[in-house]
Amino acid sequence: MKLFIVKDKKTGDKKAFEIIKKQILHKPDSLIGLAAGKTINGLYKLVSYDAMKYPNTWKKIKIFQIDENFGINSDSELSFNHQIKKKLKSLIKKLSPLNIFLIEGTKNPKKTISEGYRFLKKNGGIDLIILGIGTEYDPHIAYNTSGRSLLNSKMRVVDLHPKEAAKVTTQKGITLGIKDILNTKKVLLMAYGKEKAKSVKLAFKGRVDTKRASASALQLHKDLNIVTDKEAGKFLRYN
Fold it and tell me: Is residue 239 scored above 50 in pLDDT?
């Protein structure tokens, strides 16, 4: 595990971007797993800017949306599909449609899952996955609800934690499973602010326990990179 505790979110976004850019320069056709949400927004601004400035660096990458709100139309502000297309518009314009997998929340989930795994197999799996972490009532990764997600879980429809469901007006999500995440080659987890401090502690101080925190499964990953600010990382040691 590589831990980077920085002074603030802006600095963290820059560090996370460095990790992604290094991956792209090392393997120009990398497959990147994409999360959505406010934690990731600053990073995506940096990626979009760089994609405009250096289009040839990014044009061969592939992207894979890792979770979505089930039953939510992709033109809704509550859709992660919509958020990714909006935040990464400059990048997506430069990519071949064949290199993009975004989840349609209103589509038949069995078809989505089948197409998702076909895309992953065709492209050799995810080279780097970008993750946030849920707040302390459910320190989840992707939509793997703590207490309801096993280490061997795969891509599926899940019941959301009631507090998560209230945010997005749906009771269910579709997500990569914990096993899928552990099978990725590199993980980049980002967490900022005091509201994420206990989540980070639950996930990375102590043993793996997906009932307590599904994010704790990341302790088993061979190439885990954690970027936090001082508030979110206060229970973890500094490098």
Answer: no
Report the C-alpha gap between 58 and 24 in whole angstroms. Answer: 7
Domains and CATH numbers, the chain: 2-132+178-197+222-229 (3.40.50.1360)
**Residue 29 phi, psi dihedral angles, 5° rounding:** -105, 30
Q: Are 4 and 102 in contact (CB under 8 A)?
A: no
**What is the DSSP secondary structure assignment for residue 225, as one 8-state letter?**
E
Residue 147, pLDDT > 50, answer: yes
- Predicted local confidence at residue 237, as pLDDT: 65
Helical (H) or strand (E) element with 177: none
Beta strands in the chain (DSSP E): 2-6, 31-34, 62-65, 67-69, 100-101, 128-131, 156-159, 172-175, 187-191, 224-229
Secondary structure string (H, E, C) spanning 100-164: EECCCCCCCHHHHHHHHHHHHHHCCCCCEEEECCCCCCCCCCCCCCCCCCCCCCCCEEEECCHHH
CB neighbour class for 212 (10 Å; exposed up to 12, middle 13-18, buried from 19): middle
pTM of this prediction? 0.96
Structure token digits, residue 79: 């859709």
